[in-house]
Each structure stands twice: as structure tokens, then as C-alpha cells.
Amino acid sequence: MDHAMMAPAIGSMAVTAADLLALATCIGVLGFRVWVVSFRDEMSRHSAALLLPLWRLLGICLAVLTLSSLGELLRRAMEMSAQPLSGIAPMLPAVLLKTHFGRVWWLRPVALLVLWLGWRTRPRLGSPGVSATMLAAACLIAASRSLSGHAADWGDITLHELMDWSHLLAVSLWGGSLIGLTLAGFGAFTAGTAERRQLVVAMARRWSALAGAMLAVVVLTGIYNAWLELQRIAAFWETAYGRVLLVKLSLALIIVALGTMNRYLGIPSLRAWASGSPPGDIRPSGLPAIVLSWLTREQTRRSRLDPLLRFVRRARLEGVLMIAALLCVAVLLSQMPPRHLGRVPGHAAHGMAH
User: Is pLDDT at 345 greater than 80 in this prediction?
Assistant: First the structure.
């Protein structure tokens, strides 16, 4: 690829990466607000202290998402018209009003308006109804991606689009909350824990349950989507798309391993910690916990490191790896899936060579 073609490709990937990261973080933070932070008594003082930095991060992500939505429109208009950025202005009305992408894109400004209005309720960090409405609006933006991406090749409102949308939502609810807490929330999560240990444990358990449910959806929809795009196992190593997907899957496996450790070792340790038991007295229970404790030598470290700190360290590493996995997704979206390579002259051999 020559330099003249490389710059637009990198710019396109940058726009897609910013859009994906901002959207996933928005959905993750709002999902955390709706399902993990209790609405009991409208909001405890400690919960509000935790959510305030997340709400600020949500505002930053909404700003990025607003700009990236405009960037996505300009990028697609350039692709459709084969014109440079300076020459697409006359084409924008036709793109917005007469193309499938344009009609789907209109979901974004509507949803962003709802999100910005909801974010303005920051003094109360969003009532249950406002937060749920904002989450629904963010899910609508996710739908706009599925309705105008690779999954839309089979037509409008298809099973392929539904599976792609479900995958994106599950990754965002699980991974976006990890990213949000990694970037803004863990400092407040660990501050002043002496007087709110039970609250921390309750939120960690709800968060783990949400992650487990979303992981099941990610696995099922991911298998479906991967088979649909690859269509043969050899495409994993014979095509650029497949190799990037392998990197993404490798990152996902590490994230799942860290999450499993937090679920079976971290949360039981937090429960004992909240009840006042000395760290050295905590023993794993259940086969998964015993095996993981033996493999990771967790038992020998319990007396040296605070249980909450261990839990947060693993979750932070998950968040960093999740950012890397979403960057892989941005690269995948710029690649031609292997299912197309045989239909385009010269692409099959090119995909295998590169």
C-alpha cells in the first residue's frame, strides 16, 4: 500500500477506534450505573462518590462520540463518492437522505441528544429512569453500527445484524465498564473502604454477575460471527483478517482468565475481608477456586496484599487488555472479511500473502 492510500486508511481506523472505545465506555458506565450501583435510597453518599468520576468520564466519551459520529459520516461519504474530504460537501445531502447508511446514521444525532440531556442531570448522577433511558439511547447508537457495517451485507433487519448488535452490546456492557473503572472509577472504588466494605463487596458481586452473563453472550455471538466472516478454519492464519482476529481472541482469553480469578478467588476474599476475617485465614472453597488458588499460588500472597487491591489490580489489567481488544476490532472493521476475498479478483491471493 503506498503512502497516498495509507494515510486515509489510518485516519479511517482512528475514527473507528475512537467511536468504538467511546461507545463501549458509555454503554459500560451506564450499565454499571443501572445494574451494579444500587438505587436504594436513591443513592448513598458512598455510591455517589464512586459515580462522580465515572459521570465525568461519560461526558468526555459523549464528546468523543459526537465528533466520531461526524467523522463516520465524512468517512463514508468519501468512500461512496471517491472524493477527498475537501470535495464531499456537495455529496452530503445525497448521502444523508438517499443512502442506507445515511438513513441509519440519523439514529446517532437523535440518540446523542438524549444522552446529552441525560448527562445534564449530573447533580443527581441520573435517576433510575434517566440512566435507563440513556442506556437505551447508547444501545441505539450501537445498533447504527450493526445496521451499516459488515453484518448489513445480508440486508436490513436480519439475524446477522441482530447477532452483531448483541455481540457489541455484550462486549460494551462487560468491557466498557472495565474500561470506565480503569480510567476513572477504581480510585474512588478503593478510597475510604474501612466504612463501606459491605457496599464494595455487594457491587463487586453484582458486577461479576453482569460480566459472567455478558461473557456467555459474547462467546455465543462471537462464534457465530467468526464462522460467518471466516467460513473456514484456515482463514485464521491465511488472511490478515484472521490473524488480527486471533490476536483479539488471545487478548479475550487472558481477560477471561483474569475475570475468572476475580470471580472465584477475588470475591470470596472480599467477602471474608468485609466480615473482618484475617487475610491468612481465608481458604478457597469449591473446585474452581481450589484449582485456581493452587495454579496462581494465591494462598501464599493473601497475607501480604489487601484483597481489594488484588481484585482491583486484576480488573485494571483486564481494562487495559480490553482497550487493546477493541483496537483490534477497529482494525478488523477496516479489513475485508475472508468471505469476500474469493469474490473479488486478485484479493484471495493478496489476503493469503499478507
Answer: no
Cβ–Cβ under 8 Å, residues 90 and 96: no
Hey, CA dihedral for 29, 35, 39, 44, is it positive or negative?
A: negative
Q: For the beta carbon of residue 68, count every other beta carbon within 10 angstroms.
A: 23
CA separation for the pair 74, 77 (Å, rounded): 5
Q: Which of 351, 352, 333 is nearest to 19 (CA)?
A: 333
Residue pair 152/146 in contact by the 8 Å Cβ criterion: yes
Can you tell me the distance from the alpha carbon of 77 to that of 106, in angstroms, rounded to the nearest whole number? 14
**What is the pLDDT averaged over residues 99-106?**
88
The neighbour count for residue 350, using CB atoms within 10 Å, is 13
pLDDT for 124 equals: 56
Please write the tens of the pLDDT for every residue from 125-172: 557 788 899 999 999 999 999 888 766 666 677 888 899 999 999 999
Residues 52-72 have pLDDT tens digits of 888 899 999 999 999 999 999
Give the Å distances, CA to CA, from 190 to 53, 112, 201, 311: 13, 32, 11, 10
What is the grid cell recorded at 220?
A: 455465543
The Cα 354–Cα 244 span in angstroms is: 12
* Separation in Å, CA 99 to CA 70, 80, 109: 16, 10, 17
CA distance 222 to 216: 10
CA nearest to 339, candidates 200, 176, 201, 154: 154
169: cell is 452490546
What's the residue count for the chain? 354
Q: What are the residue boundaries of the structural domains of the chain, listed by start? A: 3-353
Q: Is 8 exposed, middle or buried (0-12, 13-18, 19+ CB in 10 A)?
A: middle
Q: What is the DSSP letter of 315?
A: H
Q: Over the stretch 182-240, which tens digit does the pLDDT of each residue have?
A: 998 777 766 656 667 787 888 888 999 999 999 999 999 999 888 888 878 888 888 88
pTM of the model: 0.85
